[in-house]
Design goal:
about 1300 residues, alpha/beta, 35 helices, about 15% strand
């Protein structure tokens, strides 16, 4: 059989299964072998093929009609490939190469395992690699000018012509596989360089330097803002006082300049200030207020997250010289007309929180309407949304609801169309979805490419991370956005993985067992409730919510010893400590105080109180039965029989009689009524039916039958007067009913008491569990108590150790001298004055509080910021990190992020990492610039994470073969691991409807008995990482390791296939120079920002001298190193390709950095196995130098496809010297036109939008933009001609302000 060249990966892999389970490929044997002559044409119609023998490769002439033959040189029996058979290719079968001998096999589509008829190796078909293989075949056909279906039976319609068939096959043999490899490496781009660059205003020179180093992402630094035309009125005063730095003045200029424009809907354009925490946004806002005050606009609205920040606003206004501007706190003012005589607020800054914005009085008056009335219909003053991330979720995800805050923020902007809006937050756009309230930016709406925000959102999400990174650059280029941050070079980040201590391991293991037993107990209790069963969905929702909260508490408590140890170490080194957490456990503490009183034996255990409340409030109990008296039982039966008539003469009842005449109908009705009244007064004995008034009659209470006392058997001697009387039959029946009802009620009482007893036993077990105390109280106690620790949280009370050391006492946090409203400000001042050297902050104090080593404060010791609890989102993480890293600080902080070694706890880290990734991409222009970039390794809550999770679940259920083997130990087989995994996932509610017997070792489980996983759970990474917290630590980590291995394999495969969205790609080359002057192709009509085409000359090559130097630097003393020069085993057009492989230090699995003569260092690494499979080490340096120089010289003017490249001279794959076209500057308005133009390209790699970043080597000019492939340049430019004279945004009206000449 003909050997085909090996491409990226083998579709057919060697199988470890037994041969008996393999399929049969049919007529693939060798029934008759003909000896061929080498290189001779032995008859008409003969075709030439290359021998399949290893190392032989000689050309054989095969006569027409001969299918099986033998090579005369290597004596290898082989067969003609199906492509050259006279009958053609069987279109019903797949033609695939063997993974071992590379022969082409006709494989039926349904066959997955079989034996190669030539080399007898057991093989298996991988469906995923099969799809990639077909894709690579289509790509090779495109390069060689073939139709896409060369091997699918449609392209070989006339296989009777051997010459044409061999011609087609020969072209496929000559495709350069190294070219495909290099093309994939170029698609992946270069490695990320330095993220930040030093920042100084590029077009303004007023004001002093900022007191601390300020940086900007390198992507944003490549974009210049528009020319400043606004004349700052406060500039002379500020320059003289020096209260605002140059970058703060730059913000005021561009914000004021932006406010001079209007959008297409006639509303005023807004500005977005995205400076990082601590840069000085508060003072910048104060400067804006002062500038507008000087321009005659005396009213301003300032919204923020906390009422305490009003004091900071007052301080900032005083600092900039605006002491005359009053600040009014809206929450202290009554509902009414603010500028009335009673209230008297006619001008100044109205400071309010987002909570106040959505508030209303008991009479229905709203604060929002109060603000609009105060501002007036022609309000042109400042409207500042400080910490505007509070208004996110205006456009929620599917199934969610918009927040009232987001809706109110949007409504306020709509009702004040002339207001000068400023959005201000370091985390204002952590996700594109959270930009929905920023309607004044003009990125969507009338006159833009996006009619509404939803269309804008869909476009960004479709175009990937690169598009998000370009949004920030576009906003800066159009003068609506500035984003700087304090330099983190002096700050230190460290993630400390805290191993569980032995007692905590035991505690954790006991807790996992208890939760499993509790789940079983609740199931049994639900079954016992029977027909009056409570809402199961609600119960299990509460169960899993408390399950997550419980183990989150445990994880946090496990880090308390490490946090205390780090804090004490920092204090001993002369530093001070800030400990950040999100929750305080106040609710659990208050429940315990209400239950046990204010004096307790020890601190409250949050997990224990959580469990007690769950069981006490939600344990399924049968309804408590009511005790019924005999009379009540009889009354019930009497009501049932109320309509049973007595025996004897039937009573007459009045009934309407139909008649045509009204008079007759009335007469008959009257007669019947009279008869009824007479009969009702007469009672007859039900026994003798005689009316005898002289003898007493008695009436049965139950059946209402009447009888004479003498007629009754036995006769009644005493006539009951007031007591109930029953006849003989009813008396017997009543006794039976009463007995049954008593037995039923007794059974109900027994079941109810048994359920209460079971609940009491569960609660007693909970009380005996060894569970940790509330972390916040524990930390404060271990670090010296409230006298040594400043607490800035939202809780009202706390537990403190008693003076005698025995027990604890609950007391309020504030004292007589300090109100509860001011307690956090008081505690902050205690810390800043050095009276307390440890501060604990929660989410309630994470926004706006400054705890840095301020040069104006008494306490200037270096801060050690310990994150005990990872925040739920990056927004909160940034707020916490910004508390200790701010302007005017004497020293930068040290950050210590604590994470336990539990795989499940990484759920919280993965959420933070996900937010930080997109936060950096949008808010700061580069996804690698987020303040927690070191957490990106834990970002599993992504598309690849969901796909990996589905693969893990299906592997555990033995529905698919996993791409990587599961982590087994101690002689454990893969089946054993899957068995344990199924049992574990059943315990945590992931697997449902499983049969218990299938978990016995050695049992043969069917797919039905293994259970099922719902479609919703199949891709829910958050639920998986949350639920595995409830597994014992050992297997929890193993299951998480399996998930991570599959995740990494998917990422690696996506990178290899060019499908991984890596955002901005860094172009690395030995020389990058502008080839010609940049060419403007589009201009924004309002800001004047340009879209520019940069044409660059790039030299990516690596000289032999530089390669030798790299090899010498990495050489080892032993001779066993695999570092060195290699050449490809496969020839292409008579020659091989060279590369340099240098082993990367670090992981145990050996991987190598790859260097090529034409393209320098490759973006991806290569494993030792792949290296040895595709390349062989060059024996001598002289031979390596010759091959290297040959590749280096040839790649200067031709691509790796050689002279036969179908794309022609514009192909750049593997070309050392190439022309690169970058579309930079303003991109968003022309993105659609570029995308449409690129979609027409023939090659797949040319159709992909790629955002690149580079820096010229001669003048260090940074360029960021879209990479336009050479074949697509003319198409893109012609597509842009239609947009060149059109406004790219909705800002179309003229300026209101004309600068002086």
């Amino acid at each position: 059989m003909l050997v085909m060249r090996e491409w990226n990966s083998s579709v057919i892999e060697r199988s470890g299964r037994e041969a008996g389970k393999s399929g049969n490929l049919g007529n693939q044997g060798f029934t008759e072998t003909v000896d061929m002559t080498q290189g001779e044409d032995i008859g008409a119609g003969a075709c030439q093929v290359q021998c399949a023998g290893p190392g032989c490769r000689c050309i054989l002439s095969v006569p027409r009609g001969v299918l099986n033959f033998q090579c005369p040189q290597c004596k290898l029996p082989q067969a003609l490939p199906p492509l050259l058979h006279p009958r053609g290719v069987d279109s019903s079968k797949l033609q695939l190469p063997c993974a071992n001998c590379r022969c082409i096999l006709n494989v039926p589509p349904s066959l997955r395992r079989f034996v190669c008829p030539q080399c007898r190796v057991e093989l298996a078909v991988d469906p995923q690699k099969l799809a990639a293989y077909r894709s690579s075949l289509a790509h090779l056909n495109l390069l060689s000018g073939q139709t896409p279906g060369l091997l699918d039976g449609t392209a070989v319609g006339d296989a009777l012509d051997p010459a044409s068939a061999w011609s087609r096959l020969h072209v496929k043999e000559e495709v350069n596989e190294v070219a495909l490899e290099v093309e994939q490496e170029e698609d992946e781009g270069g490695t990320a360089g330095e993220t930040f660059t030093d920042y100084r205003p590029s077009k303004l020179s007023i004001g002093p330097l900022h007191p601390d180093p300020i940086v900007e992402t390198s992507s944003l630094s490549a974009v210049q803002p528009p020319e400043p035309i606004y004349a700052l009125k406060i500039a002379p005063e500020i320059e003289q006082s020096g209260t605002l730095s140059c970058l703060q003045l730059e913000t005021i200029v561009y914000a004021s300049q932006r406010h001079m424009y209007r959008l297409a809907d006639q509303s005023r354009a807004g500005f977005f200030l995205g400076d990082g925490a601590g840069v000085g946004k508060g003072r910048t806002i104060a400067g804006l207020v002062w500038e507008n005050w000087q321009q005659g606009r005396r009213k301003a609205l300032w919204l923020s997250v906390g009422s305490d920040l009003k004091f900071d606003a007052r301080r900032d206004l005083d600092d900039v010289g605006a002491a005359c501007v009053e600040v009014h706190a809206l929450n202290k003012l009554p509902y009414g007309k603010l500028d009335s005589k009673q209230i008297g607020v006619r001008e100044g800054v109205l400071f309010l929180t987002y909570s106040s914005l959505i508030a209303s009085s008991e009479k229905g008056k709203s604060r929002l309407q109060q603000l609009v009335t105060w501002c007036g219909s022609n309000f042109e003053g400042l409207l500042v949304f400080d910490e505007c991330h509070k208004a996110k979720n205006l456009i929620p995800e599917a199934g969610g609801q918009a927040t009232r805050t987001g809706e109110a923020v949007l409504e306020l902007q709509t009702r004040l169309p002339d207001a000068r809006v400023v959005y201000c937050s370091a985390t204002g756009a952590s996700e594109p979805r959270n930009m929905g309230y920023m309607a004044r930016l003009g990125l969507w709406g009338p006159g833009t490419d996006f009619s509404h925000f939803q269309a804008f959102l869909v476009a960004l999400e479709k175009r990937g991370v690169g598009a998000l990174e370009l949004v920030a650059m576009d906003m800066k280029a159009r003068g609506m956005y500035l984003c700087r941050t304090l330099s983190f070079k002096s700050a230190e980040f460290a993630i400390d993985e805290v191993p569980l201590e032995p007692n905590m391991k035991k505690m954790y293991f006991t807790a996992t067992q208890f939760w499993n037993e509790l789940r079983t107990e609740l199931m049994v209790a639900l079954e016992a409730v029977q027909d009056r069963r409570p809402n199961q969905t609600q119960l299990w929702r509460l169960y899993w919510a408390n399950h997550q909260r419980f183990f989150r508490h445990i994880c946090m408590s496990a880090k308390v010893p490490a946090a205390v140890r780090l804090a004490k170490q920092a204090l001993s080194e002369g530093k001070c400590v800030v400990i950040g957490l999100q929750s305080t456990g106040e609710a659990r503490t208050e429940e315990a105080v209400n239950r046990y009183g204010v004096e307790l034996d020890d601190f409250v255990s949050g997990p224990r109180e959580l469990l007690l409340k769950l069981v006490e409030d939600h344990y399924p109990l049968p309804p408590e039965p009511k005790t019924l008296q005999d009379d009540e039982i009889v009354k019930g039966e009497s009501r049932k029989r109320a309509n049973v008539p007595a025996r004897g003469r039937p009573r007459k009842t009045a009934a309407p009689v139909e008649s045509d005449e009204d008079g007759d109908q009335d007469d008959e009705t009257e007669s019947d009524q009279e008869s009824t009244e007479i009969d009702d007064d007469v009672k007859f004995c039900s026994v003798c039916s005689i009316e005898d008034a002289t003898e007493s009659l008695v009436e049965c209470t139950l059946c209402l039958r009447v009888a004479h006392t003498g007629c009754h058997a036995p006769p009644i001697t005493e006539v009951p007067v007031s007591k109930r009387w029953y006849c003989f039959d009813c008396s017997k029946e009543v006794n039976e009913i009463q007995q049954e009802r008593r037995m039923f009620i007794a059974d109900q009482f027994q079941r109810f008491e048994a359920a209460k007893e079971r609940r009491a036993k569960v609660m007693e077990v909970i009380r005996t569990l060894d569970l940790p105390n509330n972390p916040l109280d524990d930390i404060i106690d271990q670090l010296g108590g409230p006298d040594c620790v400043a607490e800035m949280t939202g809780r009202r009370g706390m537990l403190v150790r008693a003076a005698n050391g025995k027990g604890v006492i609950y007391q309020a946090r504030n004292t007589k001298d300090v109100t509860m409203e001011m307690i956090n400000m008081h505690e902050k001042q205690q810390f800043m004055d050095g009276k307390k050297l440890v501060a604990v902050i929660s989410e309630a104090a994470s926004a706006g509080v400054s705890l840095q080593a301020d040069r104006r404060a008494l306490n200037q010791k270096r801060r050690v910021h310990i994150t005990l609890e990872l925040p739920w989102s990056a927004d909160r993480a940034i707020q916490q990190f910004g508390r200790t890293h701010r302007s005017n600080q004497a020293s930068a902080p040290q950050y210590r992020l604590l994470i336990t070694n539990l795989g499940g706890e990484r759920r919280f880290a993965s959420i933070v990492a996900k937010r930080l990734e997109t936060l950096g991409a949008l808010t700061q222009g580069d996804r690698r610039a987020g303040a927690g970039q070191s957490l990106s390794a834990y970002n599993y809550d992504s598309g690849y994470g969901k796909k990996a999770l589905a693969t893990v679940y299906k592997s555990v259920l033995e529905q698919v073969e996993p791409p990587v083997p599961p982590p087994t130990k101690n002689g454990e087989t893969e089946k054993d691991f899957y068995l344990f995994a199924r049992a574990a996932l059943l315990c945590v509610g992931i697997i449902r409807d499983a049969q218990a017997g299938q978990f016995n070792p050695g049992s043969k489980a069917s797919s039905k008995s293994m259970g099922r996983i719902s479609e919703a759970d199949l891709h829910d990474v958050g639920r998986f990482l949350n639920r595995v917290l409830g597994l014992e630590p050992g297997f929890q980590n193993r299951l998480f390791e399996f998930f991570v291995s599959v995740f990494d394999d998917l990422i690696q495969g996506a990178r290899k296939d060019g499908q991984f969205d890596s955002g901005i790609l860094d172009i690395r080359a030995s020389s990058i120079e502008l080839q010609e002057e940049p060419k403007p192709v589009h201009r924004d009509p309002m800001s004047g920002a340009l879209t520019t085409l940069f044409v660059l000359k790039v030299d990516k090559g690596l000289t032999y001298e530089d390669a030798s130097q790299l090899l010498d630097q990495s050489s080892r003393e032993d001779d066993k190193s695999d570092n060195g020069f290699y050449q490809s085993k496969r020839e292409w057009q008579g020659r091989t390709h060279c590369l340099l492989a240098i082993e990367k230090s670090g992981p145990v699995s050996r991987s190598f950095r790859i260097f090529r003569p034409a393209s320098g260092e490759a973006a991806r690494e290569m494993s030792l196995t792949e290296l040895r499979t595709k390349y062989s080490k060059v024996p001598s340096l002289a031979q390596a130098k010759e091959g290297w120089l040959k590749d280096y010289m040839l790649s200067a003017d031709q691509c790796m496809h050689g002279t036969k490249c179908k794309v022609g001279s514009i192909c750049t794959v593997g070309r050392r010297l190439q022309q690169m076209n970058i579309l930079g500057g303003l991109i968003l308005p022309v993105w659609g036109a570029v995308e449409k133009a690129l979609s027409k390209q023939a090659r797949t790699s040319h159709r992909k939008l790629r955002v690149v970043r580079l820096e010229t080597t001669n003048d260090s000019k940074r360029i960021v933009g879209l990479h336009i492939p050479n074949p697509a340049v003319s198409t893109v430019l012609s597509g842009l001609n239609g947009t060149q004279n059109k406004p790219a945004t909705s800002e179309v009206l003229a300026l209101e302000y004309h600068p002086p000449s």
